[in-house]
Design goal:
With 128 residues, the protein is α+β, with helices and mostly antiparallel strands. The protein has a single domain (28-127), classed as Nuclear Transport Factor 2, Chain: A (Roll), CATH 3.10.450. It has 4 helices and 4 strands; from the N terminus they run ααααββββ. It has a 4-stranded antiparallel sheet. Strand 3 and strand 4 (121-127) form a beta hairpin. The radius of gyration is 19 Å and the shape is globular.
Length: 128
């Protein structure tokens, strides 16, 4: 392959990969909107907002008592500040599972956040 053709193919491939990556980020915006809402709900002790985007099973299985327990452990750290970093997406059991890293400003341990969505509804949410 001559040098000019190689450069043209490389450019076309990088454009294709860049466009695919941009589309992947765009497609995550709904998940990131839901994640932001859930994280704000935890930080502000707002159970109704926490379950608002959940499917029926999620709303039934996450009790107020469970939410309060998680809130008591994590909200104080969140109030000091945190950043969210994208890690990736898994396809599992008919859901898209969005993986994010929560890095707290207090310098303590990071948390892995998993948000499972099916048809735009939350089917699961975990801090690890």
């Amino acid at each position: 392959m001559n040098k000019a053709r190689f450069i043209a193919v490389t450019f076309a491939l990088s454009l294709f990969v860049s466009t695919g990556f941009a589309n992947a980020i765009k497609n995550n915006s709904a998940a990131d909107t839901i994640l932001t809402k859930i994280l704000n709900a935890v930080e502000n002790n707002d159970y109704k907002s926490f379950i608002a985007d959940g499917d029926n099973q999620f709303k039934v299985s996450i009790t107020k008592q469970m939410f309060d327990g998680v809130n008591a452990m994590i909200a104080p750290r969140m109030k000091k500040g945190y950043e969210v970093f994208q890690l990736g997406i898994l396809n599992q059991q008919g859901c898209q599972v969005y993986l994010r890293k929560l890095v707290f400003k207090d310098g303590g341990d990071d948390l892995l956040v998993k948000l499972a969505l099916r048809n735009g509804k939350v089917t699961g949410f975990w801090f690890q």
